[in-house]
Amino acid sequence: MWMRAARALRALRRGVLLLPLALTALALLLLPRPPPLEPSPRSPSPPAPAPPREEQHLQTSIIEKEEVIEHDEDDVARRPWYMRGGEQRPKHSDPNEGLFPEDAPGDDRVVQQLMYTLPKDETVPVKKILLANGLGAWGVPAGRTEFIRNKCPVDRCSLTADARDAATADAILYKDHHTPFNIKRPPNQIWILYYLECPYHTASLRPSSLNVFNWTSTYRRDSDIVAPYERWVYHDPLVTEKELDKNYAANKTKKVAWFVSNCHARNRRLQYARQLAKYIPVDIYGACGSHHCPRTDPNCLEMLDREYKFYLAFENSNCRDYITEKFFVNGLQHNVLPIVMGARASEYAAAAPHNSYIHVEEFAGPEELASYLRRLDEDDTLYNSYFKWKGTGEFINTYFFCRVCAMVHANERRQRSAHYTDVQAWWRDAACTRGEWRATERDTRDNG
Ligand SMILES: *[C@@H]1O[C@H](CO)[C@@H](O)[C@H](O)[C@H]1NC(C)=O
Ligand SMILES: *[C@@H]1O[C@H](CO)[C@@H](O)[C@H](O)[C@H]1NC(C)=O
After folding, report:
1. Pocket lining: 161 vs ligand 2, CB cutoff 6 Å
2. Residue 271: CB within 6 Å of ligand 2?
3. Which CATH superfamily is domain 232-395 in?
4. What strand order describes the sheet that includes 254-259?
């Protein structure tokens, strides 16, 4: 109990520290910076605040298995319920504890939402949640099953897809589109807009739909219910590295690999990769390159792990917080060092394990990046420093519907009322850039 409190306090302090640190890191990134001469890893970025989700993991890594053996089972059981083997159930029932965006600016609050519960001694009415796009869009059954089978700490909710429930539902969840039900909206009904894709790939809403949503649920960290592609959580937020028991550079003869099929991404990633290829070998697999190996073939991923040192985890769009499986799965869950392009450098720092990747905007351009990669290629110690995060935590199941249920109850308990006056402006304005982020930061500075 005291340990949890101490941890929460630390997490809180870290949250307060996070913003200035991120700004400092960004400022440092904006300075022209020669590749460091000492074999030291990049300047430390603040560890991401601890939090959670379960996804099928494409690969159960060897390291994680070892770790379970290393720790005794008690240690694993003491982890929170949303981690593998964890049994700690939440005790907090204070709805004011860091659940909503205004409670913790910059934080995604996923862990706090997973650790919220209701007072044990009260009978709480079941909240009805209407899925406007049907059950199939979410792959969940009607009723309370989803909450019970996942052992949600707050499970007093029921799912429905029946349009007749629109008059009485406590919340309505809209996925990608807003098709209003032809029913007068009850006063306390919460409307939630969910987007999986980035703004370039979501449809515009009708003008009459702009000011009707109370909450958003997207990968963006300032959404009310953040739904990240993956969520990394340290087992102990103070332990962000461990000693390696293998050499990740061993036997690798190739440099940079990239699996890509869309050759016309908005952020000109292909042009960047081609520039990079002038200074270091880049093997492009798929429609935009000359190498072939279907990504779905497990041998391809095995080859990636065995032969390549670097992987281009370039998103197709540079949008705020937009970091997908390309990074989390293709990159981090393999034995290659991901080179990233997509969200801002500070946003990767907040979402990724410590020292686990290289952001293209840390370098003036492809030539400078290539020369740093060549240095890593020659220095196994430096290269391996990017893998020390492995085994210090896990990508969790973020139990989306558990959190929706918790939030609907918490909102009522604290009698909170909020809505987006223009949800499209929130979603789109300044959210994406066709060029580099540092150019937009400069523009903002000049204009401001
Ligand atoms: C490298 O190759 C050697 C010899 O084939 C093998 O014993 C070793 O396990 C390999 N190392 C890695 C990290 O794959
Ligand atoms: C939801 O949003 C509407 C406006 O769109 C507002 O009138 C209502 O008070 C909000 N309700 C809650 C519970 O936030």
Report:
1. no
2. no
3. Glycosyl transferase family 10, C-terminal domain (3.40.50.11660)
4. 282-285, 254-259, 308-314, 337-341, 358-359
